[in-house]
Amino acid sequence: SGVCNVLSLEIKASPKVRAFVGEQVLLKCSFKSSSPITESLQVDWTYRPLAGGHMETVFHYQSIPHPPAAGKFKDRIFWVGNVANGDASIAIQSPSLSDNGTFICSVKNPPDVYHNIPQTVLVVTERGLAFQLSSAALLSILVFLPSILVVILLLVRMGRKFRVLKEKGKCGYKKSSIEVSDEPEHTDTAGCGGKLREWCLNCVDTDEEDPY
């Protein structure tokens, strides 16, 4: 019968919860009981600071929530659970670095009073610290960023050359920009041939060299 009592109530809680300073955090706790839920059901949340010390009760529930009337969590812990659904979760508002520590969710539903004791470690950090780059990630960025820039510049240059060749193909132009600059200018641009040649010269980017 001792074994049946031990297994009659099971509690589950997250082993580790991360939070940011000033942002509400949820501490989940769920339970399963072999006995019907009654008004005798009790939920207790206890806390031990990260630096160590004795465990202290920071929240109590029986029929209604009983938040702490004093202590560091006064007016900051709220009941968000639903015992009918096997939920005994709580929420902490405006967590701070001093809240880091171990929380334990305990449930008693007479005659089911024996259960496992899962622990939840709360880790509160500054949000800015969560986005700091590790040395390996920073080194990778410094190594690969120049290579990416070089590839982008090459693609842009190839795109410009392709557009120049495409325009030259449309105009039927065969001479290089150097050959064009050495030719004397013709003031007579009358006729289709002169206008076409003038338009083609305007299409060519004189800063680019033709491939040979």
UniProtKB/TrEMBL annotation:
Keyword Glycoprotein: yes
Keyword Signal attached: yes
Domain called Ig-like: residue spans: 22-125
InterPro entries noted in UniProt: Ig-like_dom, Ig-like_dom_sf, Ig-like_fold, Ig_sub, Ig_V-set, Myelin_P0-rel
Keywords: Disulfide bond, Glycoprotein, Immunoglobulin domain, Membrane, Signal, Transmembrane, Transmembrane helix
Membership in a protein family: Belongs to the myelin P0 protein family.
Protein name: MPZL3 protein
Organism per entry: Oriolus oriolus (Eurasian golden oriole)
Highest classification ranks of the organism: Eukaryota, Metazoa, Chordata, Craniata, Vertebrata
